[in-house]
Specification:
Blueprint (H helix, E strand, L loop, with lengths): L7 E7 L6 H9 L6 E8 L5 H4 L1 H5 L4 E5 L4 H10 L5 E4 L5 E2 L3 H11 L5 E9 L5 E6 L12 H6 L9 E4 H7 L13 H11 L4 E12 L5 H23 L4 H24 L3 H14 L7 H19 L5
Parallel strand pairs: 1-2, 1-4, 2-3, 6-9
Antiparallel strand pairs: 4-8, 5-9, 6-7, 6-8
Helix pairs in contact: 8-9, 9-10, 10-11, 10-12, 11-12
């Protein structure tokens, strides 16, 4: 890197994020690393998102850019174009960082110049910021000091955007995040990590708990729709990456993809969406046959949802 303390650009894309955007920005402003710039890219919000952070904009602590709604991939690209840091860190508008997140990742990349992309671990929180018991993204025992990208993909969840820091040259080599216009069934984060890996860029994992990933409820219909969209987009990104892989690596990726799609099946059943739950289970089994055996458990999930819904609608005893 060009200096002992290179500029780190923090990019926060948001859409209708008035409930959480201020907390996210405050966690970025609270970083112990002194050389940062923060940009919020408002992807066409129609609520009070900007109002929540007007004081930060007014005193110059953050930069704010508004654009017509185009999706998180385009918002991230806008942020990258409007910043100049040698290091880039992404923060989703409903997530939070620990104060030392940027400092630890920047130091790691200074001490390990071979690393182009580094991601960390974190906790799960609920809508009010309460910790979710036992929620950890990865098992650090499964990772070597310098794992290849396929090891990272197969040994846990994806590198979440909130967890990642990468060198600017990595994005310059790999191109922009996917636009995700209607009909573009691709997960922009997975697609980017795969394209970076295809360019030979080196990923690594830090066993440090440096973020809080927020889970929050929304309208049930929206949740059901988003579950299907996310699974299909991720599957498309995986399939593009699998083209040309050696047989051994192909088998490992298929197993990981099956797990990812089956997660969508479980979530669909938990939301009462029986049709999609069965469809995603069948798709998972197409990648790894053992998932056919998990269908009974999925049906139990669905029955639990329907019973809970019926009980919630039952009239109280007089």
């Amino acid at each position: 890197m060009s200096s002992a303390m290179p500029l780190a650009s923090v990019i926060i894309p948001t859409y209708n994020g008035e409930a959480f955007i201020r907390e996210a920005v405050e966690s970025a402003l609270a970083q112990t690393y002194p050389n940062t710039e923060i940009i919020v890219v408002d992807d066409g919000s129609t609520d009070g998102t900007k109002k929540q952070i007007e004081d930060f904009i007014g005193d110059g602590r953050i930069k704010y850019v508004f654009q017509e709604n185009a999706g998180p991939g385009v918002a991230r690209n806008t942020g990258i174009k409007n910043t100049s840091g040698e290091l880039i860190a992404l923060l989703d508008h409903d997530d939070l960082w620990m104060p030392e997140k940027i400092e630890k990742q920047a130091r790691f990349m200074q001490e390990n110049p071979w690393a182009d992309v580094v991601f960390c671990d974190g906790y799960g929180i609920d809508a009010k910021g309460g910790m979710r018991k036992g929620e950890r993204e990865r098992d650090p025992k499964k990772h070597s000091a310098r794992p290849d990208f396929i090891d990272l993909v197969c040994n846990g969840p994806s590198p979440l955007p909130t967890a990642v820091m990468f060198k600017r040259q990595a994005i310059e080599l790999s191109g922009n995040f996917a636009a995700n216009k209607p009909g573009d069934w691709i997960a922009d984060d997975w697609d980017m990590w795969f394209r970076m890996a295809a360019k030979g860029l080196k990923f690594t994992y830090m066993d440090d708990m440096l973020f809080k990933k927020r889970g929050h409820s929304a309208n049930l219909t929206i949740l059901i729709a988003e579950t299907g969209v996310s699974a299909r987009r991720t599957s498309s990104a995986f399939k593009l990456f699998m083209e040309g892989l050696p047989g051994k690596d192909m088998a490992r990726i298929k197993k990981r993809l099956a797990s990812n799609v089956f997660s969508a099946a479980r979530k669909s059943m938990s939301l009462g969406n029986f049709r999609d739950g069965v469809a995603f289970c069948a798709r998972a089994a197409g990648f790894h046959k053992k998932y056919y055996l998990k269908l009974p458990g999925l049906i139990v999930r669905y029955l639990r949802f329907t019973l809970k819904r019926k009980l919630s609608k039952a009239p109280a005893n007089q």
